[in-house]
């Protein structure tokens, strides 16, 4: 005997009925959800847009209440050339490739030319090729010249201490003059 359940509308349970469940989600709730999301999106968009304009008007009103002696730029969204030059270094780069190429060109010019570094002290810079030729001919200096010692903080301190010592006596135990 076949069983008949109360929700089966009088048809016997079995396989191969070829139907579908009547409890599935219909098209109306899906369409209602999509419409609700779109409407909420539009409401939120216009709410934020209105809030921005209210705050912008309030800011403009607050800016007018400042002292008339203060010069305030009315449009802060655009930058003039004089403002860029007034900003301290380093600035943002407008065109990185052009600026790095200019820097490299200036470095190459300096490395491949001769000129004064300090004219009063007699210090010059020479091209790299010429410097390599001179090093190949003369070799690298390996020892300091006779009679000179490289200055150090300790030697400078000792020299200053010996000049300041007028009594000719040792100032500290174990120190040399």
Question: What does this protein look like?
Answer:
This protein is mostly helical and 177 residues long. Among the domains are: 24-89, no CATH class; 93-139, no CATH class. It is 47% helix and 4% strand. The protein contains 5 helices and 2 strands. A two-stranded antiparallel ribbon has the order 1-2. The radius of gyration is 44 Å and the shape is elongated. The mean pLDDT is 77.
Summarize the structure in short.
The protein has 177 residues and is mainly α.
Secondary structure layout:
Blueprint: H1 27-64, H2 81-86, H3 96-111, E1 115-118, E2 123-125, H4 128-138, H5 153-164
Antiparallel strand pairs: 1-2
Total DSSP helices: 5
Radius of gyration: 44 Å
SSE ordering: HHHEEHH
Q: What is the averaged pLDDT score?
A: 77
Can you tell me the residue ranges where pLDDT is under 50 for at least 5 consecutive residues? none
Class derived from helix and strand content: mainly alpha
Main β-sheet: number of strands, strand sense, barrel status? 2 strands, antiparallel
* Principal-axes shape call: elongated
Strand % is: under 5%
- Strand order, sheet with most strands: 1-2
The proportion of residues forming helix, as a percent range, comes to: 40-55%
The first-to-last residue Cα distance is 125 Å
Number of strand elements: 2
Supply the key terms.
177 residues, two-stranded antiparallel sheet, 47% helix, mainly alpha, 5 helices
